[in-house]
Amino acid sequence: MTTLALARTPEHMANLRGEWVTPVDGLEAWASVNYHGSEINAGPRIGTNGKPVTINGKAGRKYDAYTTLDIGAKFVVDGHARRVYRATPAGRRTLREAKKALRQLADELLP
What we know:
Number of strands: 7
Strand order of the largest sheet: 1-2-6-7
Low-confidence stretches: none
Radius of gyration: 19 Å
Number of domains: 1
Shape: elongated
Number of helices: 1
Order of helices and strands: EEEEEEEH
C-alpha cells in the first residue's frame, strides 16, 4: 500500500501577533506575521496550481512557502467595537486562489 502525505499540510508553520493600545481613545491596533511552509497536495483532486511532483509513483503538486503580514485596527464607538481590516497583496492573491479552487470544486460537484 502506497501512502501519501496529508494533503495541503505545510512542512513548517509559524505565527506572531502583536496588539497595541494607541493614544487615541478607543483605538487599538494589531499586526501579525504568518509563515506557511511548502506543502504537497496529492490525491484524486490535485488541481493545476503548484509544481508537478511524483510521490511514491503518484502525481502530486508542491506549493512554495510564503509569508504574509497583516495589519488592522479596532475602534470602539459608544461601547460598540468596529473592526477595520486591510488585506495585504499576498492576502488578496491567496483569496483569488481560494476563489478559483472553490469554483473548480463547484464545477466538479455541480456539473
